[in-house]
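Entry type: protein chain
Record version: 2
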Amino acid sequence: MQPFWKTTPLEAMSPAEWESLCDGCGKCCLSKLEDEDTGEIYWTTVACRLFDAGSCRCSDYANRLARVQDCVGLTPENVRTIKWLPGTCAYRLIAEGRDLYWWHHLISGSAETVHEAGISVQGRITAHEYDLAEPEDYFDHVVDGEP
């Protein structure tokens, strides 16, 4: 029998199936800068104020959209249009008709393999947004490519 992510379109997944696709990498919770002229995305190692850097999870997931003005809630409707989703993101992979990587917890059976494989941002956060006084401060945390 095929796993649900191979047989169920994103739009038809149950809420539990949808949520289980998140691999826990934490990359969605990092601040990203966009060049207004080119549309190019620059990744930073600055985490959202609700991001728990140890677990790579939101500390208030249920209320994040109300508490963080620019938080983007991923939905089956928008994952196909968000250009900054990491190339390893399960939502993006499934939307593109690709399979999950070996380190994804639905494959490996462990939520730790995303960290063990070096995919998550665990140990790579250099600041939280509340640590930065000015918008220009984000430039000190830009990284080459995805973190």
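Comment: Strands lie at 30-34, 41-47, 51-52, 57-58, 127-128.
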